[in-house]
Amino acid sequence: HLLTWNIVCCLAALCFLRGLQKLRESLRGFEWALPMYKDEELDEDLRKQIQIMRHSEKVPWGEGLPELRRPGSWRPYLFEQRSAVENLEEIHGMLGLVRRRPRDMTKDQLIEGVRQVLMMKYHPLLRVSKRYWSKEQAQTIAEALAMECDLHQPLASGGLEEITPLGIVNQLPSPGPAWLQSSIRFAIWAMRPVFRSALLWHSRFVATPFGKLHVLDSHAPGTSFRGNSEPPLLLQHGMFVTGWSMSPVGWLLSRQGRRIIMPDLFDFDHGNSISEGGWSAGKVRKIAEHLECLICVVRDLLDTCPKVKEVDIAGHSFGGWLIGMLASCCAQRGLPVRKVVLLGPGGPLVRIHGDPMLVRFFHCPMETLSEVLPWWVPRAPAQAVVRLVLGLLFSPNNVNILFGLRYQEYLGCASAAFGTDSPTLLLWGDEDRVNWPRKEELLMPYLNNRFPNLEAFWVEGGGHNIQIDSFVAVSRCMDDFLGPIGGGKSRIGARFLGWETLFRITDRRLTRMNMVAGVPAPDDVVFH
Questions:
Q1: What is the rounded distance in angstroms from the CA atom of residue 365 to the CA atom of residue 254?
Q2: Rounded CA gap, 450 and 205, in Å?
Q3: Which strands form 233-236's sheet, in the order they lie side by side?
Q4: C-alpha distances in Å from residue 422, one per residue of 277, 379, 393
Q5: Crossing angle between the packed helical segments 107-121 and 135-148, to the nearest 10 degrees
Q6: In terms of DSSP bridges, do strands 510-512 and 454-459 run parallel, antiparallel, or are they unpaired?
Q7: What distance separates the 2 farthest-apart alpha carbons in the chain?
Q8: How far apart are CA 161 and CA 164, in angstroms?
Q9: Is the dihedral of CA 345, 346, 350, 351 positive or negative?
Q10: pLDDT single digits (tens) 193-236
Q11: Distance of CA 208 to the CA centre of its chain
Q12: What's the pTM?
């Protein structure tokens, strides 16, 4: 009996090892078994920037700029694309003043706020020993802002103890536990068989100047399907994620017969697009580099499908800003774009520091948690959850992507390349507190100027990720806007029995935005 048991165990072990060998061989040829990008450290330039910002807290004032370009004016030095009141509110949020209203800020608080804005916008000046802004220059700028905002004069002094200290520069990066990153990578890897087997999507690469860019494609080039002569739709993901984040919307739209392409931007954590290097660094980080890659994807769609004469493009958050730029770049290069969709776009369309309490949380997470946590909630588990959240947000790659972008490149970008005459749809969650939209009376003149053929809607109850929490409503609106395959109205969500029924909670109401809010103004008045 013992001999028989040993033989059975040996045969079982051999079968198991043979099965593992077959699995390994199959995975070698499996097109979803792709390398996944992961950053372990900060970029060298960003590391130096953070060190300089830490030093500036010890030496906050320099000898002064060589000269003020416009003495008595605040606009060239602060957030020049925003009104005076918006600048006041941004400074209030940046300082984390939770117990004081913007119009009640003291003179010393305004001066410190001006210093932090200057450091955010012009931090390279800190590398030049002592040749950056002085306290007197910051005071001149603060007084000019207070005068235009019509604050009660003279301003009170003091109140510096109410300002939230800049603790975030001492916390970056905050990678979190190794098991958390491994779990995220495994979860994303586990979705690949779903995309391939259940949704019948394809994984392929597009050649770019920086290497091969990975894309998810609902229909392989050259295949015949119901909408193969209709314009394909490029769906661009946002910051900190990859193409999988657009899969709910992509799934519903592809079920209508539309071809969907979802690129992974280069050098994003857990993505399959690993660059060979950018124009000026070892990684692809700059907006212009990402745009060049997306232009290659558009050109690939037009070249590989002879029946396709135009493409539709859409993007969410950071990807929405890229899509607005991409539409203009395609027009300049003669690449036909039919329609454009923006989902909660970022850039200069959003408030940078909308919530003082949120700013305070990021600078002093544990202290803020202790202040707001109810007495009956245990402290230790709550603090552990906060550490996990910060580990997700401030991983080395996320810090490289967000803080590595210059202010003038993204949040303060005033490029005329953002905008298009093509029909454009804007969808924005009315509860978005990540890309917090600016006030309609200032936002709408800008949008009307850049997108003259714009339709815009609020998604009621939608947060930042409306492509997930409201994907049935977003997909149906996009399908109607792009033109359903076969004509008529969109069939998404129309059937009581169907896949959409399982996700009825994401079918939200849309409210049309006030497109004539405020007085239309040229860019150089409101947005300089």
A1: 42
A2: 32
A3: 202-208, 211-217, 260-263, 233-236, 311-316, 337-343, 424-429, 454-459, 510-512
A4: 33, 53, 35
A5: 110
A6: antiparallel
A7: 99
A8: 8
A9: positive
A10: 667 666 778 889 999 999 999 999 988 776 766 667 789 999 99
A11: 22
A12: 0.86
Alpha-helical segments (H) within 305-395? 318-332, 356-363, 365-372, 379-393
Measured CA angle at 519 (ends 518, 521), to 5 deg: 120
Helix (H) or strand (E) holding 475: helix 471-482
Distances in Å between the Cα of 502 and the Cα atoms of 29, 245, 342, 472, 505 are 35, 19, 26, 10, 8
| Strand, helix or coil for residue 19 | helix
Rounded to the nearest 5 degrees, what angle is found at the Cα of 314, between the Cα atoms of 312 and 320?
145
Tell me the backbone φ, ψ of residue 192, rounded to 5 degrees: -65, -45
Structure tokens at 163: 């300002």
For tokens 């890309």, name the residue.
435
Of 15-29, 54-68, 471-485, which gets the smallest average pLDDT?
15-29
Any residues with CB less than 8 A from the CB of 3 and at least 6 apart, and which? none
CB 344 within 8 A of CB 435: yes
Per-residue pLDDT at 528 exceeds 80: no
Task: Find out whether the peptide bond into 66 is cis, omega within 30 degrees of 0.
Answer: no
Nearest to 285 by CA among 264, 267, 262, 273: 267
> Measured at the alpha carbon of residue 291, what is the angle toward residues 218 and 191, in degrees to the nearest 5?
35
3-state helix, strand, coil split of the chain in percent (to 5) is 45, 10, 45
* Per-residue model confidence as pLDDT tens digits over 82-131: 889 999 999 999 999 999 999 999 999 999 999 999 998 888 888 777 78
Q: Does the pLDDT at position 31 exceed 70?
A: no
* 3-state SS string for 165-199: CCCHHHCCCCCCCHHHHHHHHHHHHHHHHHHHHHC
Residue length, the chain?
Answer: 528
Instruction: Choose among 267, 256, 234, 251: nearest CA to 191.
Output: 251
CB 339 within 8 A of CB 263: no
Residues pairing with 213 in the sheet? 206
**Rounded distance between C-alpha atoms, residue 239 and residue 402, angstroms:** 8
Phi-psi region at 5: left, alpha or beta (left = phi > 0; alpha = psi -120 to 50): alpha
Q: What secondary structure does DSSP assign to 392-448, as a single string?
A: HHT-HHHHHHHHTS-GGGTTT---TTS--SS-EEEEEETT-SSS-BPPHHHHHHHHH
What is the rounded CA–CA span in Å between residue 362 and residue 354? 13
Q: Which two tokens stand for residue 444?
A: 């709408």
End-to-end Cα distance, the chain: 89
